[in-house]
Amino acid sequence: MIKNSKVAIIIVNWKKYNMTANCIESVIECNYPNYEIILVDNESDASKVSIFKSRKNVKTILNSKNEGFSKANNQAIEYALKNNFDYILLLNNDTVIKSNLIDILIKTLQAKKVYAVQPLILNHKRKKIWSGGGKINYFFGTFSSSKKVCNSFKLIEWFTGCCCLFDSKLFIDIGKFDERFFAYYEDVDFSLRMKKNGYKIGFTPQTELIHIESASSKLERSEEGVLNPYVHYLNIKNHVFVLRKHSKIFNPIGTVFYQIFKIFSYTTYFILRFRFTKLRMVYKGLKDSLKTQI
Fold this sequence. Notes:
alpha/beta; 294 residues; ten-stranded mixed beta sheet; two-stranded antiparallel sheet
């Protein structure tokens, strides 16, 4: 029975307590009864996280520093596995879910015999599709999300860590997220590991959520823009690293060409905009990606 299945809902917070509260409220209002929210609070503020500790069905894991998205999710996954949860739902804290989301995702996963399923993800104004499932270009080594309307279930090539439901057995079989990614591309890496081990990833448009893109990565506007320069470091480092880690499935000429083009584009833009901190982070990301052991 679906209603008897235990679901662990993992939410990672980093300094966005009001946004996380809105996300949790949307989960509490959903129509699925048997769940527990596992809130992992990176660089935790005891005075602010206390509002969640008294909430029913909320387990808090407090980290004194920012451990990153991958490790924080792994901490919660470990808790879920030890407590025999049937399913694990990754959910970004900058989202608001539809009331039927958990129920529909479980039904889809069971009916289609997949081990992971992603819902339709809309931007915060509900006017555009943020992700309708992930696509991979194996020649250039790029990863994109479908923006097209899809009215039925389909298999996809990678899921976004913004929201995805998993059969817990998956993490026992192939392991958890690779913490060397810290944040960004850990979902791509995990998807490629799933495919390598014969596990399929599904997408359903029958339920949805709203996503406020990159909310945890934005700063007050400055000479460097609103996006944290560290995001550019992670973007370059982790993109190159995931291509190196799974190099056998990508075209070496195409991937090298694309990365040169990508870094050249960043370089030109940041020089023209006088954003030299971001420029340094791009080249630091490239350097560290090549030093990271596979």
